[in-house]
Amino acid sequence: MRRLVPWMALVRGLRVAAGPVTNTVEPVRGKGGMTEVRQAGSVREVVESGLCIGCGLCEALAPARWVMRMNRHGRLRPAPVAAEDSGADAEILAACPGVVARADAQGDRDDAVWGSYTHMGEAWAGDPDIRFRASSGGVLTALGVHLLRTGKAAFVLHCAADPGRPMRSRWVMSDTPEKLAARAGSRYGPTDTLAGLEAALARGNPLPSSPNPAMRVRCGPGRRRMRGWTGCWLRCL
Question: What pTM was estimated for this model as a whole?
């Protein structure tokens, strides 16, 4: 235990020094020589600043302008297929995690490794098959199965292995507990699950949600409005 103390102290020191995680791009010189931070003003700037998480939301909201493609670094990133227009992409930037997400310490407890938190606990799926087939005890898969069986959700938008390229992933919609369970397991690689959001909304059915403010979607005027919470668990069932 003594050997861990210096390492844990170092982690705490680095975390405190880094401060809250922000989504600002390269600082610029403002009036009087003062440095000003700012947020990305275009989809391209989000990508070039290293703020893109490859979620695919931009393709869902503007498929005529952006498509998700694998880059030379093995990451899924939006690529323009039409003339770029930051004005037209305003609704993307209003929901893009690379622009709106913040990670502030808001918990009432603190841990040297995990940081600020409210509660830590253990949980697993009650169904032994799901528990040991899915990832992390099958909790999220079990929740999805419950939503489908009770009719609280008509389907679940999530990612699964690509049958043609098993090492790659693709977004899918599972509308039965059996389909969802068969596609269980986290995909530790690039996944652009939110690229399927428009197709999901077009079904007009209840869509499961998760409390992740980074992915809150606000559709602009003239579009179907969705003020739900779509979170990372949709990517890792």
Answer: 0.71
